[in-house]
User: What shape does this take?
Amino acid sequence: MKNRILWALAGLNVLLVITLAVRYMSDNQAMAQAARRPSDYIMIPGEVTGGSGAVVYILDTTQGLLGAGAFDSSANAINTMPPIELSRVFEGGPPNAPRGPAVAPGGPPRQPAR
Assistant: This one.
């Protein structure tokens, strides 16, 4: 009986040593999220000019989308804005507005050349 218990304890010790060795030999990597996560988000609080409440702008950095959400306390609901594709917004560049006559600070307007 004692011989059988001794062999069982020796086998258990071998199993524990193997488990400990595997634990220390493998890479120690942190896996906070899956590698195929849907997107990275940046949420920015802000205010709307002329509005009574605040708004949260939600930027999806992976897909290049901008959305917003605001809480309506009277209806007890969250109002959301449809997402805007930022690539379409930034691909056009600045508008080409016609420039008027140049005015020096504090001076009279320049007359056009004849």
In short: Residues 51 and 111 are 44 Å apart (CA to CA). The first helix runs from residue 2 to 25. The mean pLDDT is 80. Helices lie at 2-25, 86-91.
